[in-house]
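Researcher: Please predict.
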Amino acid sequence: MGRRPKAAVTTFGVPTTSSATASKAVTSTPGAKPSPPTTTPPPQKPSAPPSPTNSSPPTPSLALSPNFYAASCPSVELAVNDVVRSASTLDPSIPGKLLRMVFHDCFVEGCDASVLIQGSGTERTDPANLSLGGFNVIDEAKRLLEAVCPATVSCSDIIVLAARDAVTFTGGPSVPVSLGRRDSLVSLASNVRANIIDTGFSVDAMAASFASKGLSLDDLVTLSGGHTIGSAHCGTFRERFRPDANGSMVPVDGTMNADWAGSFARLTSLGVKTGSAGEVRRLCSSVNG
């Protein structure tokens, strides 16, 4: 019996073929005059399978760099980290608030600190943002940075750094972030509902919202499950794992940290404003007059 042909392998529903191809057998008849060689067209290069929808992350602005403040404000990361650690030590709810803030800022008109602006009709007044917290931490970090590096570090970069440090403070991975964002000049409550994820969204609605930002289903799972920090009493979920876990737990898969780092980088690259498209606010709660 001949071997069965290999089944097609699928990736995200896209069929792919094996790299090995079967060669055609060539036969000859003894004594027969050899046929003149025939010219066969070169085999066509197979077209690459289409990429899965929304598998490519949004391209960060070329103006962003992990070393953006290396010369102008080299102590920026240390300063923000100190403020976050001090605030989180006094109030354990701060890390979750900072992580939620960056999500609400970046999903509405991009990572531009528009969620920080106070006033009538601003994003901060929308019901979806009324429960946000941690603004005092951002303001304190800005106050400190204005003392050592005046008019240099944007509020939008402070939000991103503070959220990153909040994750690290609670035992999560420390990931590098690119900096160089500018702060928005406007903040409108009317922009919130069309962009933010609502608690009543179905899975399809959430997937569509993420796709509209250039984010994948993997990003949806990672960021939806990790856009805040909290705790729960064991009694509320013990029965979900006890029968299979036999009372023990397995180590956390290290790839989760890599997934989080990638999704966080993509989230904080949304709608970035650079150069003259924004400003460096003197106060995070208001645009420069």
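Model: Strands lie at 9-11, 14-16.
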